């Protein structure tokens, strides 16, 4: 990428050269307008910086000469000046200047350089859903998007396009308004904005051959993020798409960071199960819901047998493998509506919503056998499992946990590798299937 600087001041030549080079572009510098015109005819430049005052011609004349060369009709031209005269600034914009930056604001100049280089240099990496029923327009627009670095799925009808929308991840939807078939572009906008989850945030650029004010306003009310008329100008289309995609991708990054922070705050980093803090926060809600809707709920406390010997004989790294694989087994064993948490050390807690005691006993015994068959790092691992169920009288999480924990203690005292059941008002009952 090449940048041309027309600046009589050696100091500003050096400053601009350093900024442009640091931004990742090659800088060519001249002191006069005639030198700039001559060099621009010999080389192709992606952007131009020009001083407000140059020795051999006024800036407006240079810009006119540069714009008269076809390849520079749309090239960004930035003016660096210390003159704040409003009439001169207006004349500069009329002559074709893209932006005017003040010479005494170096941070703004540096930001302008970086923004300009990035906008010219970066390809638009985006997955696009494109809906257009005109073959000629579709092929032309596809070529523009391909050249800009986009990955495009093109459909000539909205019905097939929306099926692809639900089955794939896209960064933007570009749709014509008047489409063959039952669904129009309005229907596409409505379907996207009423989609589930993150898909409703995917931006929609509506395209129409008519610049009808009422239609444009109605599209925006329906949820379209932007509107452009046909035939689309290449630079305008890419600029509008880039703005929408950049905003969407930045939001995705923020959401991803928030999800990671949430996981760090709620999950145990070794096992991937919920941590003790999350258990204390969410478990009471499980109990409250069960009492409110009069549904069953059971709790298992799982304590790995002789885990200290694993650490002592094989090292903590192997112990971590045992805990990690145990946590993964528990999560795969349970349903989405269940909660699996690492309570601490080698102890885990599982809350089974909508699960009565008989079903919980069956699940606990299956889990005990699955743990024996797991053999993490080639080791045979067993567990003592305490099981209880929510009694009719209202109890809190701490009381329910104490009941299950007492059952774990009984399982260990009576030989380990077994399931022990504790229900309020009944004696502890241990079960073991060899």
Helices, strands, pairings?
Layout (H helix, E strand, L loop, with lengths): L1 E5 L3 H13 L3 E5 L2 H10 L4 E5 L7 H9 L9 E5 L4 H10 L3 E4 L3 H16 L5 E5 L3 H13 L3 E5 L2 H10 L4 E5 L8 H9 L10 E5 L4 H10 L3 E4 L4 H33 L9 H18 L3 E8 L2 H8 L1 H18 L5 E6 L2 E7 L3 H18 L8 E7 L7 H17 L5 E3 L7 E3 L3
Parallel strand pairs: 1-2, 1-3, 3-4, 4-5, 6-7, 6-8, 8-9, 9-10, 14-15
Antiparallel strand pairs: 11-13, 11-14, 12-13, 15-16
Helix pairs in contact: 2-3, 12-13, 13-14
Tell me about this structure:
There is one protein chain. The protein is of the alpha/beta class and 434 residues long. It folds into 3 domains: 2-121, Response regulator (Rossmann fold); 127-259, Rossmann fold; 276-431, Alpha-Beta Plaits (2-Layer Sandwich), CATH 3.30.70. The chain is 49% helix and 19% strand. It is built from 15 helices and 16 strands. The protein has helices at residues 10-22, 33-42, 59-67, 86-95, 106-121, 135-147, 158-167, 185-193, 213-222, 234-266, 276-293, 307-314, 316-333, 357-374, 397-413; strands at 2-6, 26-30, 47-51, 77-81, 99-102, 127-131, 151-155, 172-176, 204-208, 226-229, 297-304, 339-344, 347-353, 383-389, 419-421, 429-431. The strands form 3 sheets. The protein has a 6-stranded mixed sheet, sandwiched between helices. β4, α4 (86-95) and β5 form a beta-alpha-beta unit. It is elongated.
